[in-house]
Amino acid sequence: MKRWLIVLNKIIETKKQEVANLVLPDPVQVEKVSFLEALANSNRMLSLIAEVKKASPSKGLIQRNFNPVTIAKAYEAGKADALSVLTDEQYFMGHRAYLTEIKQNVNLPVLRKDFIIDELQVEESARIGADAILLIGEVLEPVHLKELYEQAGELGLDCLVEVHSAETLEQILRVLTPQIIGVNNRNLRTFETSITQTKDIAPLIPKDSLFVSESGIYEYKDLTYVKEAGAKAVLVGESLMKQDNQQAAIGNLFGETSHAH
Question: Can you give 235-247 as a three-state secondary structure string?
């Protein structure tokens, strides 16, 4: 268990160094799309945030033939509602350029998935074309999270505020009611995953917040489980990324007998 806590702490230390050396890029000209509205208006039983992800610290390399734009287009063809793009280089083999390239080629709203700990990263996210950012409750003090959340709002970015524990959510709700709350079924301290986490935390999610279940979703029965628990959307990465055809993978996940080629 301690090993993963060490990894998380290491990631945050790396982020602090990155922020210290961060040079803001020139803003890219892309059309902003509302991440919140896309999730609120799905055609399916649950909205899908499909994740573009090459690797992770817990799984290593997930997708060998990694072309971010090709994957994003396959997700779009599979009728994902939104995309999540890993921009962390050191631990997830991501890049901020992937997000920009995807935004330039796909019409879906894009969430920047990274460990955001500083105002500069929020500004950077807006400049590279993100429509939304991830703010991790287990990584940020509630008051600091609120400051980043408000800054994001001023820049026209939605925020997916992610928590793993009930305790973290309760602390955040004392200072802020996020429009979108994600429950990460993966414990960031042990990296063990269980979708029962969604059900455990569901009673604490404010009625006005859009409720997203993240991680550990592999098949249709998992979707049914988190929907019954109250989730309105799911964030799915690894189980889609591991397959050869991401468009077909979405159809399979939702039990749609699509013969996508």
Answer: EECHHHHCCCCHH
Q: At what angle do helices 246-253 and 68-77 cross, to 10 degrees?
A: 40
Residue 60 host element (H or E): strand 60-61
Give the chain's domain count. 1
Q: How far is CA 194 from the centre of its chain?
A: 17
Cα distances (Å, whole numbers) of residue 157 to 6, 133, 191, 192: 31, 7, 28, 30
Model confidence pLDDT, tens digit, residues 124-133 = 999 999 999 9
Q: Is residue 217 part of a domain?
A: yes
Classified as helix, coil or strand, 210 is: strand
Q: Please give the positions annotated as active site.
A: 51, 53, 113, 162, 184, 214-215
Is pTM beyond 0.90? Reply is yes
CB atoms within 10 A of CB 196: 12
Q: What is the pLDDT of residues 92-115, one digit of tens each?
A: 999 999 999 999 999 999 999 999
Q: Which CATH number fits the domain that encloses residue 226?
A: 3.20.20.70
**Helices H / strands E in the chain, number of each:** 11, 10
- Per-position b or e across 179-195, b if 16+ CB within 10 A of its CB: bbbbbbbbbbbebebeb
Residue 145 phi, psi (nearest 5) = -60, -45
